[in-house]
Write a structure and sequence with these properties.
About 35% of the residues lie in helices and about 15% in strands. With about 525 residues, it is an alpha/beta fold.
């Protein structure tokens, strides 16, 4: 039996580290347990081919909240912030390339090279985003209201949300209420005329989702991303992980890797009493905070007779249909897309019809012959990622389903690799001759490596019914029906991606209740 702790945090990803550091800074005795040999989870940079390293499974850090960076004083631990989000290069099959800069005027000038109408429309679009950002971020960056116990305090909290919506002004409020349920294709078709520009802007609306551009409420996903994406981390996800680890250690957190949790322990009253590791060691604690997926937490870390039917039923129907694979390429030279020079983030899509056809394949349990790619090329100047003059190409491949009729095997992963490189050759014609090494992670591989249920990169789909009451109504405020058990991972509000908010808000709820 190990020393008793106040709180055990399960999982050493960015949310687990955030929760642990937040709790430790408030004087709690915290131990963080990570089953892998490295910290970071989906944000961990790892070598995939001799001499070549990725910056993590996910590569977009524009959603990391400044509130968390400030609260944990992460800049003290070496974190460097770029006060704007990264430039994204949007590509078309016919050789066009648009650099979508964070600066609206600069982006509009780029767009004007293809359409003056779209350049003006983009200014209006960004103006709308700026108007609603305060309201949206207020919803997503706070502990959700308690809808299960509507007393005076809870009604007042809801009333404040309503007043914040009204403060947008009648025109903006009505526009938001109109467009939020729309498909992203309908939303952007009303504003823009150039197909590849519309497709490129729409990308974040459908990444990691069981949706296509014509699916309802995809506009809401786009707006959530646009409102949150303001800054990015220099050095990418791995730099964030390193700063969080230092912050947690300074806060007194006991961090252990290669420490897989086998079971969450409950006492005779079904209250949390600690955890048991795979090696048999028991660590007593009155509170356990799990940054694992909801299904992993309730189905793998608890015994079947420890959760009631209603909880089991709700978690079973929490949707986590993985649709994303990861392909890493080691390239023996610098590359550019459509002759555009050096780029860092690239989106493909070409048109809404192409994107919808790619999504269609998932519905029939196969992967697309022309997948949608979200590409990251870390700076070639960073010799820690690749040899000088060489490059790493990190690719999120949409749509590649977890439930795949052919089954995921070396043969089918090689087929996906071939299709991914073939798709890239629309934009870099000779890239196949420069590939010296590769790694393909199917959704099944993602589940095995990162304990992602069904390989879902966000711990669950970003559907409208799985956002504010995420993952399910009885766990929407991080506390679960099991006394002492809390959720603090991406399966909780405000959802997946690299944001740190689920871990931060989960820890705040623990502190509020103890």
């Amino acid at each position: 039996m190990s020393e008793k702790k106040d709180i055990v945090v399960i999982g050493g990803g960015h949310n687990g580290l955030t929760a642990a550091a937040t709790l430790g800074r408030k004087g709690k005795k915290v131990i963080l347990l990570e089953k892998r040999s490295v910290l970071g989870g989906i944000a961990a940079g790892e070598e995939f081919y001799p001499g070549y390293r990725t910056t993590g499974l996910l590569h977009d850090t524009s959603g990391v909240r400044s509130k968390v960076i400030k609260a944990l004083n992460l800049e003290k631990f070496g974190l460097k912030i770029k006060k704007s989000r990264a430039t994204v290069s949007i590509l078309s099959k016919d050789g066009k390339c648009l650099h979508l800069h964070s600066d609206v005027e600069k982006a509009s000038k780029e767009i004007a090279n293809f359409s003056q109408k779209d350049a003006e429309a983009y200014k209006e679009y960004r103006g709308f985003i700026n108007k609603i950002s305060g309201f949206i971020n207020g919803l997503m960056d706070e502990i959700p209201p308690d809808l299960s116990n509507l007393g005076g305090k809870q009604i007042w909290e809801l009333a404040k949300k309503g007043m914040a919506l009204k403060k947008l002004g009648k025109k903006t409020m009505m526009e938001f209420l109109k467009v939020a349920p729309m498909s992203v294709a309908d939303f952007l078709n009303e504003r823009f005329e150039t197909d590849f520009i519309k497709a490129g802007i729409a990308g974040p609306a459908i990444y990691g989702s069981y949706t296509g551009p014509w699916s309802s409420y995809t506009t809401l996903n786009l707006l959530l991303w646009e409102c949150a994406a303001n800054e990015c981390i220099k050095g990418g996800p791995q730099a964030l992980v390193e700063a969080l680890e230092k912050a947690a250690k300074e806060a007194g957190v006991d961090i252990r890797t290669n420490a897989e949790v086998d079971k969450i322990l409950l006492d005779e009253n079904r209250n949390v009493s600690g955890v048991k590791l795979a090696n048999g060691e028991e660590i007593p604690a009155l509170i356990v905070a799990s940054s694992s997926t909801p299904r992993e937490t309730f189905y793998q870390l608890l015994l079947p007779n420890q959760i009631d039917y209603s909880l089991e039923h709700a978690i079973q129907h929490y949707r986590s249909r993985g649709t994303t694979a990861k392909v890493n390429l080691a390239i023996d030279r610098e590359i550019n897309f459509n002759g555009s020079g050096s780029v860092e983030f690239v989106r493909t899509g070409n048109s809404f019809d192409d994107m919808e056809r790619a999504f269609d394949s998932v519905k029939y349990r196969r992967f697309s012959d022309e997948p949608i790619l979200d590409v990251h090329i870390p700076s070639v100047a960073d010799s820690s990622l690749a040899p000088l003059g060489h490059a790493v190409v990190s690719i999120l491949v949409h749509f590649a389903p977890y439930n795949f009729d052919e089954g995921w095997s070396d043969k089918t992963k090689n087929k996906l690799l071939y299709i991914t490189i073939k798709t890239l050759e629309h934009y870099v014609p000779d890239i196949s001759s420069s590939v010296v090494g590769s790694e393909v992670l199917s959704p099944v591989d993602l589940e095995e490596r990162y304990s992602l249920t069904n390989g879902h990169i966000f711990h669950g789909e970003h559907a409208v019914d799985q956002l504010i009451t995420r993952p399910i109504p009885s766990c929407a405020r991080y506390a679960t029906p099991i006394s002492g058990l809390y959720l603090c991972g991406s399966g909780s509000h405000p959802g997946g991606g690299i944001t740190c908010m689920p871990g931060y808000l989960g820890a705040k709820m623990i502190l509020k209740n103890t």
